[in-house]
Amino acid sequence: MTKHLFNVLIDQKHPLSPNFIPAHLVNVDIPFLCEKNDEKRKMYKPAAKAMQKMYKQAKQEGLQIYGISAYRSYERQAEIFNESLATNGYDYTISSIARPGCSEHQSGLAIDVSSPLCSFKLDDSFRRTPEYLWLSKYCHKFGFIIRYPYGSQHITGFRAEPWHLRYVGEKTSTIVYSERITLEEYLQMY
């Protein structure tokens, strides 16, 4: 994966191949709620390093950011999508869960995070934590964006996910943050 791939759109219209596995996946050295050998602890190496740096800064400021899920294979995404279809139905699933191949997690550039203050949930309760407030102000300084911000579903195609961070590099993340735009809008402008 080269630097320009940091700014590739991955969504329903721009899927990754079922065979795509990012090179240079490494464990992210932050607390996770899963076993040490679980693949969801992995990210593409530059993204993992940036996440570790961001975690250390947040920890120094008294915050508790935990990784929930980073890398996710095509097959694992298919399982999650199909489980949601069976449990939650089509309308919810299509607006909340990426189809297999359409998940940024497969790229190794995305990570879902949470906090003990919201019982490690990936729902709106995370938005009310100091961890989310800090991330919303500072994650861009480490090359990350909150990928699915509130009020952007008509642009991104997904409900807001304040816990879903995407590594795009510091240049892009700073523009997305300062212009208050989505990755889709950024890619249309640049």
Low-confidence stretches: none
* H and E string: EEHEHHEHEHEHH
Q: Tell me the distance between the termini.
A: 20 Å
What percent of residues are in strands?
5-15%
Reading side by side through the largest sheet, how are the strands ordered?
Answer: 3-4-6-5
User: How is the biggest beta sheet arranged?
Assistant: 4 strands, antiparallel
Q: What level of helicity do the residues show?
A: 25-40%
Mean pLDDT: 95
Rg (C-alpha, Å): 15 Å
Number of strands: 6
Rough outline: globular
Mind explaining what this structure looks like?
This protein is α+β, with helices and mostly antiparallel strands and 190 residues long. It contains seven helices and six strands; from the N terminus they run ββαβααβαβαβαα. Helix content is 36%, strand content 14%. The strands form two sheets. It has a four-stranded antiparallel β-sheet. Helix 2 (74-88) runs antiparallel to helix 3. It starts with 24 loop residues before the first strand and ends with a helix. The model has no long low-confidence stretch (mean pLDDT 95).
